[in-house]
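Project standup — Tuesday

K.O.: blocked on the structure for the chain from last sprint. Re-posting the sequence here as requested.
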Amino acid sequence: METTISLTSQDVSKEEPEILISPKNPIPVETLFLSNIDQAVCFPVETIFFFDVLPSGISSPLHISERVKTSVSESLLIPYYFMAGRLNFNVETNRLELVCNNAGAVFVSATSRLAMKDLGELSLPNPSFHHLIHRPGLNKSLAEKPLLTIQAIRIVTC
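H.V.: unblocked you, prediction finished:
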């Protein structure tokens, strides 16, 4: 049985300040109605994806970060432009609404001193993986919190 590593906040260091990424193309500025299910089931979904970098010339942390930012701006946020918006509580209707205002998705680049092999079995839940997740704006109002946050962490692949 493989042991699970316990991560700490010192295992991940941010390389740059967090930035906001917007869709490359112009998007409609609108407010979207949220269904009753959207109103009742409103919680953050934190997901971590691990992948190996091919041993080509693109493995520098800066280049990888730029590729991810470009992909988000040019591919992800075009059809899913609402992910660059913010939630708002409408006091007149007493409901949450999705304001597509192009406020931006948060992106931050980081590195880790750990190797992929040090993380243990990646397909198994590990409560300490929460140290790999960037949580911006814990003290911000609802209208200031981003819907999408991406943190690209470069981990050594030995």
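K.O.: great, moving the ticket to review. The chain has two helices and seven strands. The chain has a mean pLDDT of 82.
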